[in-house]
Structure formats: structure tokens, C-alpha cells
Amino acid sequence: MSWDDLGDLEGEITVYSGRTPDQIDLVFEQLENEYSGLTINRDYDDNDVQVNQLEQEGDATPADVFYSQDPGALGAVHDAGIVQELPSDIVDTVPESYRHPDGYWTGVSGRVRSVFYNEDRLDETPFDSWDELPTDIFSYAEDDRFEGIISTRPNSGTFRGFIQAMVDLEGEDATRQWVSDFMDQDPQRYGSGSTQAEEVNRGGDGDPIIGLGNSYYAARLVNEDPDSPIRVTFTEGDAGALFSVAGIAVTNNVDDPELIAEFARHLVAVEGQEFMMDDNGEFPVVDGVDYVGPLPGPDELNSPTYDLSEFDMELQAANDLLEDEGMMPL
């Protein structure tokens, strides 16, 4: 499906976004440039703030679309009964594992938990080759060669989602041990994924050499500068390589249902998927759209099988676990 196959977008759309402007605003700008009669009103804030706002406003919300950073928040607005089923032709373009089973939300772009590192700093590590980086997430907590050179961002919803997935896949005891062991590595803990990746890439005194984080932060840096020294690798078959999605849900009482449906179709069309790859370093989630970017494609990854609709909005159990083991608060 291409934008050429779709109807024109004309009118006003109000989007409550849990994603940041640097992640998706260029896509909105492209749509407004393509259709002179389209205005997209953006309201940016944290996912939990947007969900609370939607719940308070209920069916009186001015929002037409909720654009979420993660599946947990999409599940929360569905559970609150404030979003409607998407047209089947939209959700059917996306694999079942990346959308609500009854079509109340759908992923529109994908990301993967990853390991990124500065390839120019090998001689500052105990490793003889970057090929020695482990393919299981537990080694990054247990192997003392990572002590003092590794980093992560534990305050993000995606990190808590990674922890929840580890609990579901490996059990709570094993996950608690992983967090405790990882804290023994004296990791640098960041409040921003962009800052973390930028400092790994910068390679200055005091900057971490290795980071656990979403792959798109590194991909964006390589897209901006192909000579960038940041590189990405992935674990295999465990929560360290979890594939998750950002996605959308449509509120119950939109004024122009066909306009909103066409907007959603544009996001999952080829051009929409390509903009998210080019601008934000993410992965496509639509069958038939090939990944084009600096990282291995989704078909080359060995992510665990995991039902994203199981994500809890609050991720409270994961947050409590992180606080118990001293990783949070920052």
C-alpha cells in the first residue's frame, strides 16, 4: 500500500503523543507537506500523562488519535473503554504479534533492545575483539569484564518492559539476580536514551563504552553520520533482544472517522514506514515492507516470542523490582 493508493487527507487531526517530537514530528510534517489541506495538532507528553488525560476526558476528549511509545499504554486506553476498533484493512497489514488481538490498537513502527558500543575503544576494554560480546543478556550482568564500562537507561518504559519480559520468560528470581548483578557492574545510568547513545558514540573521558538500550538511538546516529563509531549487536532469543512497537489507537467519538482511518493507513503505508526507518532508525512492522537501514533487518534478529498485548501500562511490578534492587530511582 502506497500513499498514491490512498485518499487525500483534508481537515484537522488532534494527536496525543507519548512519543517525543524528535521521534515522529518529521512524519507529521511530511504528511502536512503532502496534503495542503491537512493540519495535525500535536500534544506531546509522557505516555502516562497522556493516558491519564484521556481517561479524565473520556469520550469528550479532543484527541482523535493516541500515539504511544509502547503497547502497555495502548492496552491501558483499551481497558478504559475510550478507543474503538480500527478498520480491518489497517490491522490486517500488521502481524498479529504487533497489534491488539481484537484490533483496538496497532503497532506502526518497531524497535529492538540491543547492545551498542564504540568500536574505536576496544583497547580500553578487557576484550580482544568485539566478537567476544556475549549473545545472552545474563552475561552482561555476570561477566566482570563489563564492570565500569557499561550503561543503560532504567527509567524508561521500554526498559521496564524489558524487565517485565525477562520476568515472564525467565522468572522473577532470575530477573532479580540479573538486576542485582548488573548493578554490581557499576553501570552509568541515564535519564535519556539519546544522551546515553550520544555519549557512547562521543567516546570521551568518562563516557561509557557499551550501552544496553533501544537500537534506534544508535541507528539515528549512524544515519546522521555514516562514519560514526557506534555499532550495534544483539543477544539471541532472550529479553535482551525484545522486539516491541510504538503504535496508535483511535478514540471513540472522532468527528471524521474516514479522515482518521486514512491517516492511520498513511502511517502503515510504504512511505510512512520508510520515513520512520529513515528519520528515527526504527523497523517496519508491515508485511512486505523491507527494512532499509544500518542495522540487521528484523528477519536477521533472534528476538524472543512474546505477546506484546501482555504489557501492563504501569509496569509496576517491574518498577518495584528495580527499586528493590537499587537500580531506581536514578
UniProtKB/TrEMBL annotation:
InterPro entries: Ferric-bd, SBP_1_CS
Keywords of this entry: Ion transport, Iron, Iron transport, Metal-binding, Signal, Transport
UniProt entry tagged with the keyword Transcription: no
Keyword Signal: yes
An example Gene Ontology molecular-function term: metal ion binding
Pfam families: SBP_bac_6
Protein name listed in UniProt: Extracellular solute-binding protein
Gene Ontology BP term (one): transmembrane transport
Sequence segments annotated as region (Disordered): 184-206
Family designation: Belongs to the bacterial solute-binding protein 1 family.
Superkingdom per UniProt: Archaea
